[in-house]
Amino acid sequence: MSLNERISKVIEYSGLTPSEFADEIDVQRSSISHVTSGRNKPSLEFIIKIKSRFPEILWDWLVTGDGQMLKSELPEVPEIEVTIPESNEEKSKPTSLPDLFTMMNDDEDFGAEESETMPSKESPAESFIPPQGKSEEKISNSQRLENYIPTNTIQSTENKGVAIKRIVIFYENGKFESFEP
């Protein structure tokens, strides 16, 4: 089945007329006609618009024709329940990703002062960095920087003693300006 035929099948699946389908996926009506007739091949943008409007259609089927058209046609995979025993007292329960509040309840150090949970400065894994001395000069936004005046460092030995007669600047739109000193 060609890509054009698969798109015709998607239009048929949607239950819309080709004009309504074009409006639904926000493309020109003529492009639907050109694609379904086989005159033009659909662009990637065209296919992405179909997929974003109909997320139940599988990419593989839409692009290559492999597999089933809809996700619901696939055999369902049973959910697997994962259990991890936490203690002898508590029975196994399904695990899920923790949310913020369960993390707060499980965290023994939550709400502790920073000094209680921070490692000491004598810890061999960390090194102590002394604060910067006050002798360093701080720059504030209100201070002006020195004016930097670039100097022309490129000098040609061939053009010494030759004066400029005219400078012409050409613009992309075909216009130009001429300057004479």
TrEMBL record:
The keyword DNA-binding applies. Residues 105-116 have a biased composition (Acidic residues). This is DNA-binding transcriptional regulator, XRE-family HTH domain. It holds the Pfam family HTH_3. InterPro entries: Cro/C1-type_HTH, Lambda_DNA-bd_dom_sf. Keywords: DNA-binding. Transmembrane segments: none annotated. GO terms for molecular function: DNA binding. It comes from the Bacteria. Residues 84-143 are annotated as: Disordered. The keyword Hydrolase does not apply. Residues 15-62 form the HTH cro/C1-type domain. SUPFAM superfamilies: lambda repressor-like DNA-binding domains.
